[in-house]
Design a protein that fits this description.
It is built from 11 helices and 10 strands. By secondary structure, the protein is an alpha/beta fold. It has 2 domains: 134 residues, Nucleotidyltransferase, domain 5; 165 residues, ATPase, nucleotide binding domain (Nucleotidyltransferase, domain 5, 2-Layer Sandwich), CATH 3.30.420. It has a 5-stranded mixed β-sheet with strand order 3-2-1-4-5, sandwiched between helices. Helix 5 crosses helix 6.
């Protein structure tokens, strides 16, 4: 089954074609990072207009890369929640028009469910390895989810304020680093001493919840008082360590409390190599298997949406063309 996936929830216009939930035939991603860098962050109206410009060319590029025509597509999966409403509407409108014109089934996919299923591209045998623990860690979301089967999720922990990616990005602005902040902090941290600054770790007792707003405030306070006495690489490395320590500790706690031995991570922050190393070391200590997709599949992409759509269609009917587009929605 060839699923055409569409992802336009933020500032990437992406179209992918995935066969049988495991073989990526094409995964085209048109990033707007350079466009939004001048503003220090994503401007929703600018993002929406750029999606309109790029939607059709990116879709054609995906078909060309896969060596296919629209007649080869069996179903369409599109992100319809959560995200920037204008950006989502561009992708959803295109997907609905395509489904109507070609008489194809269509599935609206939750963006975070797409991130979960990016792991199935890295390790297709996960489809037979339930239950799973998944750390979803991105610019807007930080969650630990238990997955007991396709479409069967239990939220074990979530951020009570800022997401990990948000802490990276906003702290990067305090350090006068360019957008996107997270990757620039990570690059700078490679040259620094992570023990140089004792930034706080909010552990919230025995819960699996997260809190990063205090860390962001601590960075702002430190930068205001430090007056350039501490090198930027040392500050970046210390900031990164504070975030990674908490993410790793919470996943260790989740593995111990649930007894689940297969751990996954997804979302843009999961592409951070220091986080990958920390989670891998923890998984080996706990006797767990760790799955993390390649970096291109951690960030927003349509291949993960196509995979999620494939597994939804195996067990559920397709959606009506009247399904909603939502800026916010719980998973």
């Amino acid at each position: 089954m060839n699923i055409l996936g569409i992802e336009t929830s933020c500032d990437e216009t992406s179209v992918a074609i995935v066969t049988d939930g495991r073989e990526i035939r094409a995964n085209i991603i048109a990033s707007q990072a350079d466009l939004h860098a001048r503003y220090g962050g994503v401007v929703p109206e600018v993002a929406s207009r750029k999606h309109v410009e790029r939607m059709l060319p990116v879709a054609q590029d995906a078909l060309d890369a896969a060596g296919m025509r629209y007649s080869d597509i069996d179903a369409i999966a599109v992100t319809n929640r959560p995200g920037l409403l204008g950006a989502l509407l561009v992708g959803v409108s295109y997907a609905k028009a395509l489904a109507y014109a070609l008489h194809l089934p269509i599935i609206g996919i939750h963006h975070l469910e797409g991130h979960v299923y990016s792991n199935f591209l890295a390790a297709p045998d996960l489809a037979c390895s339930f239950p799973l623990l998944v750390l979803i860690v991105s610019g807007g979301h930080t969650q630990i989810v238990r997955m007991d089967g396709h479409g069967q999720y239990a939220l074990l922990g979530r951020t009570r304020d800022d997401a990990a990616g948000e802490a990276f990005d906003k702290s990067a602005r305090l350090l006068n680093l360019p957008y996107p902040g997270g990757p620039n902090v990570a690059r700078l941290a490679e040259q620094g001493n992570s023990a140089r600054v004792a930034f706080p770790r909010a552990l919230l007792g025995d819960s699996m919840d997260f809190s990063f707003s205090g860390l962001k405030t601590s960075v702002r306070t430190f930068v205001g008082k430090d007056a350039g006495q501490t090198s930027l690489p040392d500050i970046a490395a210390s900031l990164q360590a504070a975030i990674i320590d908490v993410l790793t500790l919470k996943m260790r706690r989740a593995a111990r409390q649930t007894g689940i031995r297969t751990l996954c991570a997804a979302g843009g922050v999961a592409s951070n190599l220091s986080l990958t190393a920390s989670l891998q070391a923890m998984a080996e200590e706990e006797g767990c298997r760790l799955v993390i997709p390649d970096p291109v599949l951690c960030t927003d992409n349509a291949a993960m949406i196509a995979v999620a759509g494939y597994y939804r269609l195996l067990t559920n009917p397709s959606d009506a063309l009247s399904f909603d587009t939502l800026a916010t929605s719980p998973m």
